[in-house]
Amino acid sequence: MFIVIEGIDGSGKTSLSNNLVNKLNELGKSSARFSEPTSFESGKYIRKFLKGDILLSKKEQIDAFIFDREISVLKNIKPALQDNKIVVLDRYYYSTAAYQASEDFSPEEILNLNLEKKFPKPDLLFYINIPPELAYKRISSRNDQKEIFESIDELTKINSNFHTVLPSTKIILDGLLSENELVNSCLKHILI
């Protein structure tokens, strides 16, 4: 089973994906967690951009994310699925569509560029819904350096973009729930 968790920065995707994989493994369901950008060189390149260390045009951003995704699918996702693991992925092509959208590239156009690549479609897609103001508050409480998309205006725009590209099959999770409640909400859909 291939599960994707999406949401704006500060929504709790990383915590949920970690907690979910831990719980699945506890229940005897062999699981693996991955994230995008990856930890490969292609993902490290994107992280330099996100930290503001390098500048990329919107087209270069989209190309970098798609290239990293090709590596993610080849080296992480497909091998784990072939090994009969439940794969939980923190961010996928819906994030690229929501974050990299601009006047030059609509969220739908970016999504279509990804779909043309025939990347595996998730069996379950969870979207953590949270007010951008609360997400920003969470981000601001971290000690990390802020990334380029971490402002209330950007998070509000990205949240709106997500809602234009997420398929009707998405499962919306309440980002105000506790970590345990979020895991249990996901398990209800996974363990049927």
- Mean pLDDT over the residues: 93
How many angstroms does the end-to-end distance come to? 12 Å
The stretches of 5 or more residues where confidence is low (pLDDT under 50) are: none
Q: CATH superfamily membership, which one?
A: P-loop containing nucleotide triphosphate hydrolases
Describe this entry's structure for a reader.
The chain is an alpha/beta fold and 192 residues long. The protein has one domain: 3-Layer(aba) Sandwich (Rossmann fold), CATH 3.40.50.300. 53% of the residues lie in helices and 13% in strands. Strands 2-3-1-4-5 form a five-stranded parallel β-sheet, with helices on both faces. Helix 4 packs antiparallel against helix 5 and helix 4 packs across helix 7. It is globular and about 45 Å long.
Q: Keywords for this structure?
A:
8 helices, alpha/beta, five-stranded parallel β-sheet, Rossmann fold
What's the SSE blueprint?
Blueprint: E1 2-6, H1 13-26, E2 31-35, H2 41-50, H3 58-82, E3 86-90, H4 93-99, H5 107-115, E4 124-129, H6 132-141, H7 152-165, E5 171-174, H8 179-190
Parallel strand pairs: 1-3, 1-4, 2-3, 4-5
Helix pairs in contact: 1-8, 2-3, 4-5, 4-7, 6-7
Summarize the structure.
The chain is α/β, with parallel strands linked by helices and 192 residues long. Helix content is 53%, strand content 13%.
